[in-house]
Design brief:
The complex is a heterotrimer of chains A (about 250), B (about 100) and C (about 100). By secondary structure, chain A is mainly α. In chain A, about 70% of the residues lie in helices and about 0% in strands. Chain A has a two-stranded antiparallel ribbon with strand order 1-2. Chain A is extended, with a radius of gyration of 25 Å. Chain B has one domain: Helix Hairpins (Orthogonal Bundle), CATH 1.10.287. Chain C has about 100 residues and is mainly α. Chain C has five helices and no strands. Chain C starts with a helix and ends with a helix. Classes of the chains: A mainly alpha (about 250), B mainly alpha (about 100), C mainly alpha (about 100). Chains A and B meet through helix 1, helix 2, helix 3, helix 4 and helix 8 of A and helix 1 and helix 3 of B.
Amino acid sequence: MFNKLDIEYDGPAVDKSALSLIASVLVVGLLLAVTIKIVLSDKGHNTGLAPLITQNIELSGVTNPITAVLLNFRAYDTLLEIAVLLVVVLAILPTRDHHAPFFKRIEVSKQNLVLLALQRWITPAVVIFAGYLLWAGAHQPGGAFQAGALLAGASVLMFQSDTYQVNYTSFMARVLLVLSLVVFITIGTALIWFEGSLLTYPLAFSGLLILLIETCATVSITLALASLYSSFIASENISVTDHKHRTIK
Amino acid sequence: MTSALLYSMAGLALFAIGFFGVVVASHVMRKILALNVMGVGIFMFLIALAKRNPLVVDPLPHALVLTGIVIAVAGTALALNLMVRIHHMDQSSQEQSK
Amino acid sequence: MNLVMIFDALLIFSMLTLGWMSIFSLSLFRCIVFFVCLGLLAAIAWGQLGAFDVAIAEAAIGAGITGALLLAAWNRIRPHRTKAIEPNLTNAKTSQKDTREHV
């Protein structure tokens, strides 16, 4: 700060970096002081909403309390979350190749043997495990988001070699991307006729409806996350040079 | 000092590190990483608060955090896309000015 | 102070260190790798706190997908120096110090 004494200095009188440092320290200090006060004043007898959830868990159709909260008690949150994910995908989706097929296999002359073996062995196992997670989400830790994330990870692995290509602007991909939102909204509004209010499941069918919504959500989340990844590797012609660099290595 | 209190303090510290990074970091990608570190701190604080009673675990913050993780990755992807676009715009304008 | 508390303290200390290093490391690549490590440690921490659903999601999304996204974006914005490096590499074989740097 005091390295050089410049007598004819006529820059700004206030150092911007020091100001931002002081401001950040002040804001964080205030936040920390308030939250530490709140945390320390809590004596550990507060159980939050846990008793309410355990009381009503029989009405939800599932026995895993987190799935019950996500898809029954606070289903609005999940609905809007899927909508937010769809909006982000729409924002970054390339606007070309409407008529190209949804799924395409390309013969690549130079194969990476280790990657190929990894894809062959890991991907089927991941798909089966994702199905298990989706099914087990009703009564154990697991559910649509975890299954979708796992499947998206498997698809990221599949994209590493250029053998498989998915066109996210084809009609099929669009249908699958909006599938969960459409199913969720349709079920939610249809329930107004039967039960009288939005997203109130009838007791006998709640488990089945939750499983249906979760399955559609898994498909949509998988495709959404995979398209988020592919937006970095396969858009515009700059990526052509990137591919060349990768195959040289 | 219970472990829940320990973890909530750690979450606050992570939040502070991330906030400092957002304000101070130079590169846009570092700012995005700092936002993500902030997010991890907030998630840790929420999950630690769900366990402040050692006998009962409150599932509601867990569901909120699960929603938050997915939203965080969506926001990160959007920010990274904007960063890549701005970078390529800068590059092409530099090449034109040469 | 029992073993679990010591484990918690170590976990938190390494998470804070990784959080700092994932922002202020020298190269962006290291930042990304440290952030992925932070995500994995966070998954362990959620398991310690009894949030197993969140731990699965964090391990798959926070460490897996976010790391892949960050690396793909980094690959798009880094300066491509392949042409500049190749002649350097042939020269570097003569000098011990240069090869060590490239490794």
